Every structure is written in C-alpha cells, then in structure tokens.
Structure of Flagellar protein FliL:
Amino acid sequence: MAKSESRSFSKILKSMLVVLLIVAASIGATLYYTTQTGAQPLNAGNDGVSVASAQAAVTPPPPPPIFVSLEPFTVTLRNERASRILHVAITLRVTDEASRQVLTTYMPEVRDRVLSRLAEQHPVQVQTTEGRAKLVQDLSNALEAPYLPQPQGPSIQNVLFTAFVVQ
C-alpha cells in the first residue's frame, strides 16, 4: 500500500514540476520578448534607424479642436396642417483660429443665416436622420459663405447639434 501511495505521490510531483517548468519557460519567453521589442520600434528592423530618429519622425499630436457655440435657436416650423416649434442649440467645429474669429465678429449675420435655414425646414423631415444630415450640410454651406467685406468665409469642419427638440 505504501508503494502505491509513493508512486502516486511521485506522479503528482513530476506533473507539478512539468507544469512549473512550462510556467517558468513562458514567463522567461515573455520577458525576453518584451525587453527585445521594447528596445527598438517595431518598424525599425535592421535598416539602421536609431531609436531617437524614429521617435523624432513620429507625427506630433493633432491640435486641440476649436469650437464656436451659438446661442440656442427657437423657430416655428409650418406645414399644411399645423405649426411646430423647433428648439436647437448648435456648436460649430472650425479648422482654425481665423475661422473662429470671423464667426465671432459676424455673429449677428451668422445667427441670421442659421435662422433662415431653420425656418425653411419641414417639421417631419427635420426629425429624420436624413433630414438632419441635410440640415447639417445646408447650415455648413450657408455659414462657410464669405461675410462681406471678407473675401473668404470660415472653414467649418462640422455642425454639431447639442440640443434638438421638435414640439
């Protein structure tokens, strides 16, 4: 009986040693791999590119976005059956500081252009995804037009609705 217990104990011990050896080899391989790949960039290869020049070639982070918030708009939308109220808050994402300055300087005209486009909308169409996408395009086109006497209008990346309610 003692022999069978010692045999089962030795089998368990051998199994534990094999598992421990596999775990140790796995940890060793992982450490080796991470230290080797951490020492040089992935795209450096053997072409002689140094770490410093590879880091210098990395593009700088993009500049922070520039947003111009407009005061909320409330417009009456009319159709053949009834009138509806559209309440919308808009934020514009512009490409540069000059565009932000143009929009800020000409804010009364900016608001007039937005109000004109909003008043043209049909109450049912403006509630659909396609209708909102068309409204974004219409507003972008209207706001990118030059503000006289400026020769060029602002560059708008996106028109964002921060509130949109139709009642």
Remarks:
- The chain has a mean pLDDT of 86.
